[in-house]
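Quick one - first record:
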Amino acid sequence: MAEFPATLEDRAKLGRFPQELALVLISGPPRSGKNRAGSCLARYLRADHFALSDHLKRQTHKHYGLAEDTPILQFESRKDTPSREFDGLTPREAYIDYSERVIKPQFGTGFLGELACKRIEENSLVERISIVSGVGFLDEVLPLVNSASPRRTFHIALEYPAGECPGIRDSRECLDLTPLGVKTATLVNEECDAFIHEFNRVAVN
């Protein structure tokens, strides 16, 4: 896979938008490939990729008495399978329940976004792009957009390939960030090189 130019000067050769890019937000329905798209794009952009739910998952694991070194993606392959580790809930259900019952009432609806702002600001200081996957609530996204600024933010709204629909629902919303001045593109994440090609088509031009 071709690599994205690392410096602002090199990015300028591709046009104004990539030169100014600081933040990529990836939203989408369950199993649309948000983490996979983020990882793929991070390799290409030499960016820092993390999920907005990382902190939530750590705290949920702790709440259920799992080991502190439990990997964040430990349950990724069986997110929708009832699990004894979560007292019979699916991991997805456990994360949502902990968010709605503990995180939001105690810390506010925008807490996870506010928590991520420091990382985005640190990346910006070294001209490193931040890629945040799994965004789905406007209250969480606003701090991120304000930190990077709307003109330096790009939103990828993933959708399922034609004919596919797992039928799984969660509590996240269908984000529309265009009223904030954030450039948005709807993409399908099927294969990494094809996804990068589509990203370049909609983001660079």
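second record:
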Amino acid sequence: MRGMRAVGASALLMAALMAAGCDAAGGAEPEPDPAREAEQGDEAQADAAPDEAPTADAAREAAACAAVSDVMTIVENADNALREGRMTAQEQRGWYGVATRSLGRIPAAGAGAVSQGVADLQAAAPAVDAGAADEPAGIGTAAWDDALAALAEPCLAADAELTVSAFTGG
């Protein structure tokens, strides 16, 4: 009976030690130190290469490039549909109006090459208000083409290559 009590007491002691954070060898496991973990995280982040950690500016640049790609997609699909006789010139101008309004909503307030490229595109094809009698202008002009060409490299550097998704026709 005494042996059973010793086994029971040992098991109880082992459970108590484990609950208290001690290992079987009797050494205490250190409690996590949130301040030390945060410090280690800061050190690891400081050791990382600067271009490995995306900045808010880089994210904004990539988003601006993706939005320009959407504008280019609108234009390309409207052009394809007109060329293939599936759309009238009036409809194409309507889509161009949507493209200019979408382009006008892309922030171009930064100091980088992407912001400058977006500003140049916006200047080449100013936004046309919905329902306005104004015709969209500038899309497909030399200024438009030059601004797109100048924007290609900065967008590539922002890991957001300009792309077009042609999906009309068939």
